[in-house]
Design a protein that fits this description.
Strand content: 15-25%
Distance between the termini: 31 Å
Oligomer: single chain
Strand order of the largest sheet: 3-4-1-5
Largest sheet: 4 strands, mixed
Amino acid sequence: MIIYSPERELIFGDGFFHNILPPTPHLLNPKILAPITPWLAILYTQPMTYRIDPKLATLTINREEADALNFAVQVYAKNHLFYRSEKPAMVDAYTQGKHLLFADDKNAVDTLIHEIPGVGPRDTSLDFIRD
């Protein structure tokens, strides 16, 4: 998915949302949110189930949605955030100085993934394993 943010700049950090952790010989369900410019980001995923078409989608997001994606960047960043002119408010996750991960898939990026046309709702049948 190509994400366009005309109302709020997207930030970039020295870490970004992903679930690719080494070693990954057989990665299932990869997902990456990569800000490219202050107005564009790429959300890549290959979910367990999805319809073939469309293979590419676009989305224009509002300020609140951009803030949620910027929050995700700060969770995964450690020491550096990059922005053009809109300095983001630092969140506690970023100020810890560690590359952190979301503990579960109940975050704005995973929610957005399941709103992509062709991607089904999150399968909760195995959630009991984590609990």
